[in-house]
Specification:
single chain, alpha/beta, Alpha-d-glucuronidase, C-terminal Domain, 3 domains, six-stranded mixed β-sheet, 18 strands, globular, binds beta-D-glucopyranuronic acid
């Protein structure tokens, strides 16, 4: 198994009894209507059943009086127990001897088909089956950080899957497989290029290429979007400015937009990174983010498209705490954004660290729909060599309570629009997909793509349930093995945090490459690109004081949310050093001093990787050999690098704490200089 099929593995159901039950219900497929999406639904169902049941299930035009088949029904007024079915939702139930998949839209039927296949793939009974589900978030997008030259910013799974030089004439079959995978988990939009955008995509030559991709995505209910370069009117438009209030600039964007819609009538819209990390933006002309976003919204005009404007900004002199930057710039703009303009906010205030408190903008911009951006590509989480199942991390953000509108105003509810009654809602995952045969480099990285889609659809699903479902579909249906693997997955993120950045440490990774440890990093092009800026280790202790005595970033949260973190005695240890500078000998709620707890976490974190290796070894008989060996090798690297992190961090922090490694742990056998050499090797060009 080379992993190419992802979770869409339709191998024969071996249990004869179960297979017969399934077969009985699958006598024929009666599609209704002829739209491309319904045709996709019929083909997908037929292919899936062919594999799972080992028989060809005919697709017929109408059921007439026949029984024992699967029917599609598109019904704009569909009700389920008196409740109208949500847009793109589905309802699956037995009716007059057939199984009927009802959607309000064609896409709803397609999602229902994949839900039914999932039942079979995970070996659930379909007797008396009744399933209803509606996406809680409307725009469920992948963001590709792919460049026109085929590289992927922060991509660890090969090069880009988009072959720009072959498009539009040649369509790599992979595009369709990619679309299937996305549709099967409810993803309905794809931003095809890097937020550090090239102007190329806005030229007629590239619009034609993007249109070809859109043609592949369309029958799967997926729309394409573009990241745009703010300076494009200057770079390719021959204008002397890209000031959003300049009439020529406005006209230029309007013309470009019209041209795009002519080629791609269902084009999704624009994603913008502006005045961030050196990218151009409206502030270059004394305008603000809202001026820029609104100009693009005007350019979109009557077209059915969105502007997603990123809030990932931090000025060079960020008042001593980068944590507060995006809030300072965006909070005052709340209410200024035009309809169909959304502000896209990373899960946490710094930058995709392995654990961050939720971003203080969630709950602070009630008049603006906010898109939650999470990162599937493991830039700060061990690239494609560390097994880190990210659903628990996404859930931690989604479940964070902003108290914006009283208790229970979770980030999830801010994002799905229910807290502030927004009619549009979105979520974005920075893709971990590349040209590697298995798509994600690490075979277990597929689970992060899968989990993102499932949570984007329904953020109330549990990490555990998604892990089990994915494992059954991708690896094995053997119940004890499923339990073992899902258990490792669910614990893997906490384990990663323990051996890299325990107790709320953050941003202490290798400079620029963002791989491996470099807590001693003290000088860089900007202070907030160093490590010492964030951990603030000194003779007294460790951690960033963000209380009123320090940067006061805590004050950006609602008082009830502050409560959780503002007292070092009650602050959960996992967030402690995010908000407090704690003395080395301070006793923590765990009963150990800070120094001892820190060492304990680094050491037990490494031991837990050994445990992961053992668990993985135990399921060997149930897993495809090629796949098993692949993960085994990566786990070895992970263990080696967990030791690297541990030794680097305990030895470095020891230079401040000036205390021995506590028993029962044995001090590292290498020196800090040995480790610094290692870090240097990884950073050589
Ligand atoms: C940072 C990445 C950088 C991205 C940036 C972003 O290191 O490559 O361009 O995020 O999100 O974490 O714009």
């Amino acid at each position: 198994d080379d992993g190419y099929r992802l979770w869409l593995k339709y191998d024969l159901v071996q249990d004869n009894g179960l297979r017969k039950d399934y077969q009985k219900a699958a006598g024929f497929i009666a599609g209704s209507g002829n739209s491309p999406i319904l045709q996709t639904a019929a083909t997908e169902l037929q292919q899936g059943l062919q594999g799972l049941l080992g028989k060809n299930v005919p697709v017929v035009t109408g059921a007439e009086k026949k029984k024992g088949g699967i029917l599609f029904s598109v019904d704009a007024t569909a009700n389920v127990s008196g409740q109208p079915l949500g847009k793109d939702g589905y309802h699956i139930a037995a009716q007059n001897g057939n199984l009927v998949i009802t959607g309000k839209t064609d896409a709803g039927v397609l999602y229902g088909v994949f839900a039914l296949l999932r039942q079979l793939q995970t070996r659930q009974s379909i007797k008396n089956l009744e399933l209803t589900s509606t996406p809680r978030i409307q725009y469920r997008l992948l963001n590709h950080w792919d460049n026109p030259n085929g590289t992927v910013e922060r991509g660890y799974a090969g090069s880009s899957i988009w072959k720009w030089y072959e498009l539009p004439e040649r369509l790599d079959p992979r595009y369709q497989d990619y679309a299937r995978a996305n549709a099967s988990i409810g993803i309905n939009g794809v931003v095809i290029n890097n937020v550090n955008a090239s102007a190329r995509y806005l030229t007629p030559e590239y619009i034609e290429k993007v249109a070809a991709l859109a043609g592949v995505m369309r029958p799967y209910g997926i729309r394409v979007y573009m990241s745009v370069l703010w300076a494009a009117p200057k770079v390719i438009g021959g204008l002397s400015t890209s000031d959003p209030l300049d009439p020529k600039v406005k006209q230029w964007w309007t013309d470009r937009t019209n041209e795009i819609y002519k080629a791609i009538p269902d084009f999704g819209g624009f994603l913008v990174k502006a005045n961030s990390e050196g990218e151009p933006g409206p502030q270059d002309y004394g305008r603000d983010h809202a001026d820029g976003a609104n100009m693009l919204a005007d350019a979109l005009g009557q077209h059915d498209g969105l502007v997603m404007w990123r809030a990932f900004v931090y000025k060079a002199n960020s008042n001593g705490d980068r944590f507060k930057e995006a809030y300072a710039e965006f909070k005052p703009l709340d209410g200024r954004f035009k309809p169909k303009t959304l502000v896209q906010v990373k899960n946490g205030p710094i930058d995709f660290q392995s654990r961050e408190p939720f971003h203080p903008l969630f709950g602070a911009m009630p008049r603006t729909p906010l898109v939650l951006e999470v990162q599937l590509t493991q830039e700060y989480l061990g690239f494609a060599t560390h097994m880190v199942y990210l659903a628990p991390m996404f859930k931690e953000t989604l479940d964070g309570d902003t108290y914006a509108n009283g208790k229970g105003s979770t980030v999830a509810k801010v994002v799905d629009g229910s807290v502030d009654n927004h009619s549009i809602s979105g979520i974005a995952g920075v893709a971990n997909i590349g040209s590697d045969r298995n798509w994600t480099g690490h075979p277990m990285g597929q689970a992060n793509w899968y989990a993102f889609g499932r949570l984007a659809w329904d953020h109330t699903l549990s990490s555990q349930a998604i892990a089990e479902e994915w494992t059954r579909m991708s690896l094995t249906n053997d119940a004890p093995a499923v339990r073992t693997i899902a258990d490792v997955m669910v614990k893997s993120r906490d384990i990663y945090v323990r051996y890299t950045t325990p107790l709320g440490l953050h941003h202490i990774m290798g400079q620029s490459i963002h791989y491996g440890p470099e807590p001693w990093l003290a000088s860089s092009a900007r202070p907030d690109w160093t490590s010492v800026y964030y951990h603030k280790a000194d003779a007294a202790g460790l951690g960033f004081d963000r209380t009123a005595k320090g940067s006061n970033a805590l004050s950006l949260y609602k008082p009830e949310a502050q409560q959780l973190w503002n007292d070092p005695k009650t602050c959960p240890p996992d967030y402690l050093l995010w908000f407090h500078h704690v003395g080395w000998n301070q006793e923590l709620s765990t009963g150990r001093t800070l120094w001892n707890e820190l060492c304990t976490r680094y050491y037990t974190g490494v031991d837990s990787v050994t445990w992961m290796q053992q668990q993985w070894a135990a399921v060997k008989p149930q897993i495809d050999p090629e796949l098993h060996a692949d993960v085994t090798g990566r786990l070895q690297t992970q263990h080696k690098e967990a030791l690297w992190w541990r030794d680097a961090c305990v030895l470095y922090f020891q230079t401040h704490a000036k205390q021995p490694i506590p028993a029962p742990f044995a001090p590292p056998t290498r020196t800090l200089d040995d480790i610094k050499r290692l870090v240097m090797i990884y950073q050589l060009r």
